[in-house]
Design brief:
Length: 203
Amino acid sequence: MNRILLSPGTTVLLGGVTFFLTMFLVLRSVKLGTPVLPARQPVAAEDNPSWKYRNPEIDQWISQIKEERDALDLRSEQLKEWEARLAAENREVAMVTQTVTKLQADFDKRVLQFKEQEKDNVKRQLKVVADMSPDGAASMFNAMSDDEVTKLLYLMKPDVSAPILDAMSRRGDAFAARAAALANRLRDVMSVPATNNLANATP
């Protein structure tokens, strides 16, 4: 019996029973209340670290975007100004074009009137020369320029111009040289058919 009581297993078993018995008595003597947890404070949005985080690269991108937007706005304003300026210049060009067109039409009309008057004058001159003698016509031609004489000779019929040139050549060497020069000029402009001239109207 003493051997059993002194064995290590018995000692461990008695120690464990004594420990649990003591804990049981202690816990029964202590009144435990309901634990009170501290109230949980709400977390404000501004206290959230994710809201307070600032990325320098994002700030730089935002700044660049604002600068580009301002540059685009400025460019748009400039384009609108240029568009308005071009529209004004186009209106001015249109007005100038209309004015030039009107002036050109007036000029063409006056040139046509001048040509008609010139044609009438040539017809009158041809009529006067046709009524004159060859010597009288030669004297009149001496007071006129080569261009005017050549034009009249070109518009005359050959049977009218030939006696006048002959009368000029019989007045002396200087007159004969001029008559030859006029004949050469007349030959150079004879490429135009006589049917298209006023010569046919010369009596």
